[in-house]
């Protein structure tokens, strides 16, 4: 009787242990499905907005890269064109100089004189202020864009400009610049009038943007147009801001306000203007 009671008590305990072991230990199938490794990039779900953003950014990068390549190619082609133009200008200048020498020698052999063509370009420098100046010369200097002392401009010689130079001759020095002088002035002190502002000419793109419609795309084109007094001289000259020169090295002559032929600095000094510009540049 006692033995049967012990068996009856032991059976519920065994069933309770089995139940607990069943709850505590998950099935082997479920245990095998748990992954302990780090998930890969493909297994991570990315928000759709982020995917769209990445795609748009990638597309923008491709477009920027293509645009850069296109601009790079265009710049390379433009450099080639500019180089060829500069070469043609050098040849043109050299041929013109040789032609002058040839004609001079020919006339000497024939016992005559070679008279070169009249100059069509002058460089005008203002060397006197506005003290005791009459209204007419003052207005003429404004028309010539000579608003300050030591300002300089290129002027094409016509009947009208010749009369204007006569009116303001007591206030200016002028003469016929050579190619070297023009090139040094434009490269060293060349500023453009862009949106009514004085902008240094540090890039050919500035010239092309404002004078490209006249066939002037670089500094050499601008110098050539000024030196040869071409069809678009007016546009090229107006694009250049009046040159702001320094006082000449060694100073002006003692009698500055006398005419050049009288020992002063005023008036027309023809080719000797190049020496003055070299001192002032």
How would you describe the overall organization of this protein?
There is one protein chain. The longest helix is centred in the N-terminal third of the chain and has 62 residues. With about 280 residues, this protein is an alpha+beta fold. The chain has ten helices and seven strands. The N terminus is likely disordered. Helix 6 packs across helix 8. The strands form two sheets. Strands 6-2-1-3-7 form a five-stranded mixed sheet. A two-stranded antiparallel ribbon has the order 4-5. About 55% of the residues lie in helices and about 10% in strands.
User: What is the assembly state of the chains in this entry?
Assistant: single chain
The number of strands is: 7
Morphology call: elongated
Task: Pick out the low-confidence regions.
Answer: 1-9
Strand line-up in the sheet with most strands: 6-2-1-3-7
Radius of gyration: 43 Å
Helix content: 40-55%
Distance between the termini: 134 Å
Beta-strand proportion: 5-15%
Question: Could you state the order of secondary-structure elements as H and E?
Answer: HHHEHEHEHEEHHHEEH
* Classification by helices and strands: alpha+beta
* pLDDT averaged residue by residue: 86
Reported for the largest beta sheet, the result is:
5 strands, mixed
Q: Helical region count?
A: 10
